[in-house]
Structure formats: C-alpha cells, structure tokens
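Q: What residues go here?
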C-alpha cells in the first residue's frame, strides 16, 4: 500500500477570529491533526505529515521530486479569497495522486452563490438569493422575501456570521451588506428558511459512484431544533455549544432517505469525492440546500466525532472508510 502524506496548514499558524485565549479559525488544530495521523498509523497505514501550502509551493518552484504516495488533503489553504483551491491546484501541478475533489470543483463549491445557481438548474431546491459585489447590487435585496440572512460568499466555518446576520427587514439587510462590504468582496444575501438544520456527511469512493458512508444529523441550539430566527455564527461554532441528534430521531425516515438521496445526487452533479459535508434546512417536506463543503473538519471533536458517537462507531473505523475511499487500486 502506498504511503500517505498529510497536507495541512493547521489552526495555530493563523490568527484567531474570536476574542479570548482560545484560537479559532477555519483550520484544524495541531492536536486534532496529530490525533488523526496517529489514528491512521494505528489503523495500519504508513502515514506522516508532509506540510502545507508553502511547502508545496517550494516543491514546485525548486522542482523537487515528490515522494511516491497518496497526498491526503486536509487543508483549507492560507488566507486568500480562493484559498480552498490552493492545495488541490498545487498537487495537480506537482502531478501526484491526492484525496478530495479537484481544484475546479473545489473552487466552484467554495462560491456559495454559483453553487446555488448550478444546483437550481438541476432541480435542487435552494433559498432565494442575490450576490452583492458593489453598491449598485443592493437594490436586488428588495426582490427577496424576508427575513434574510447575510454571509460572506466565499468563507466557511461561519466566518463573518453572527446574530446580526439575521435581518427582518430589507433596509436592515441593505445597511448590513454595506457594512460587510468593508471586509468582504462578495456578500450572499439569502432568504432565511425556518426549519430543521441538517448536516449530511458522506464518504464516496474516488473514481466510482460507490457510497461508503451517508449519515445525516440534526443540529440544535439550546435544545431548539426547529429554528425560526436562530443563527449559527462563528461564536456558536467556536464554543461547541451546538447539540447533535441523528436525523432519523427527529424527522420521518422518508424525509431522511430523501435528504441522503439528494446529497448523493449533488455529489454527482458537482463532481465531489471522498469526504464531503452538505447542509440543509428542512421546512415541512421541503428540503433546501444551503451549502456544501469539499473538505470538512475531520477530528474527534468535529461533526465527524459527533456522528461517530451517535452511531456508536469507533472513530478509527470512520478513518479507515475515508482512506479506503481514497485508494483507487
């Protein structure tokens, strides 16, 4: 079996995006990274840490021969707007096998607005939305139904989202969008969908249509499972105060099966592979796609760890499924 080289720029390399002593940003922590590599080794895989984006850039510029193996992309990139495409693009330039979706589709999915447009063309239900890139776009906000939620179009991990992101009125959303444009190039304004918050974790075998894992969870806050104005912002995410239930403990089994089916369809439409996460809001029997993540957090304290705990599934069993999805021969 080929050696596994882990590509990751971990959390402690970057500034914290929340106040307090705890460092939080959209990167895996060094401890979680070390635990994951040790779990891979414990499962019998020959795995080691290789480096991050800067190390890949150095290899490319200095024409270094890359060690033979499979490069496991656990990286969100550095700090640039299109950072999530950096690692897969560099690995393609270095001509090595790697895990995860390719650079083009990673970049497509990191653009929330155009992902919505793409999926709507394929009959996937999405909230009404507009993209605000300059002040002349602000008038489009009045075409949407209130309430609204505003978020940076390219960020993940709830960056740029807080309780103030929820707007009952159009004028309120316009003022917030103007303020957010000071920090972000593109603002996504979406109709807020009241309902159940569902996150769906999938593992797909690279190069095939085979599904190795597909499980949906319902996320709540203060035991509130049907959300009417609640927002999961960066503070809520960083403080780990969200609660998790298996979706089939909250929703009818037919709805859960439909969610999983839609997720598999979305993965095919967007050419996503290995480990992905897809988020929804469920209102009655309407399943609204919210966003997808081609490289979700992967650790015992992340959604993965919560899901394994709910399923009474050992974390190392999930890791083995992931590695099996990467190995194509």
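A:
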């Amino acid at each position: 079996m080929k050696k596994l080289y882990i590509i990751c720029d971990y959390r402690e390399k970057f500034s914290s995006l929340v106040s307090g002593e705890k460092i939080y940003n959209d990167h895996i922590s060094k401890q979680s990274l070390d635990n994951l590599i040790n779990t891979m080794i414990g499962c019998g895989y020959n795995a080691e840490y290789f480096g991050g984006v800067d190390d890949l850039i150095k290899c490319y510029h200095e024409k270094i021969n890359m060690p033979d193996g499979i490069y496991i992309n656990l990286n969100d990139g550095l700090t640039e707007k299109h950072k999530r495409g950096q690692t897969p693009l560099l690995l393609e330039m270095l001509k090595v096998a790697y895990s995860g979706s390719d650079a083009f589709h990673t970049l497509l999915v990191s653009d929330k607005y155009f992902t919505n447009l793409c999926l709507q063309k394929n009959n996937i239900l999405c909230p009404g939305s507009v993209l605000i890139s300059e002040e002349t776009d602000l008038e489009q906000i009045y075409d949407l139904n209130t309430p609204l939620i505003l978020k940076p179009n390219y960020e993940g991990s709830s960056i740029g989202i807080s309780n103030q992101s929820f707007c009952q009125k159009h004028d309120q959303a316009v003022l917030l969008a103007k303020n957010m444009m000071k920090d972000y190039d593109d603002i996504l304004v979406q109709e807020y969908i009241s309902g159940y918050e569902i996150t769906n974790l999938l593992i797909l075998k690279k190069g095939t249509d085979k599904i190795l894992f597909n499980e949906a969870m319902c996320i709540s806050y203060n035991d509130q499972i049907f959300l009417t104005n609640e927002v999961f912002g960066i503070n809520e995410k960083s403080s780990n105060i969200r609660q998790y239930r298996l979706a089939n403990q909250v929703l009818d089994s037919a709805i859960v099966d439909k969610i999983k089916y839609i997720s598999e369809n979305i993965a095919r439409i967007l050419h996503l592979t290995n480990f992905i996460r897809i988020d929804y809001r469920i209102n009655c029997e309407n399943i609204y796609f919210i966003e997808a993540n081609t490289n979700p957090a992967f650790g015992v304290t992340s959604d993965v760890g919560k899901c394994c705990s709910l399923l009474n599934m050992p974390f190392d069993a999930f890791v083995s499924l992931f590695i099996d999805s990467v190995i194509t021969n």
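A: Context that may help when evaluating the design: The first strand starts at residue 4 and ends at 7. The chain has a mean pLDDT of 92.
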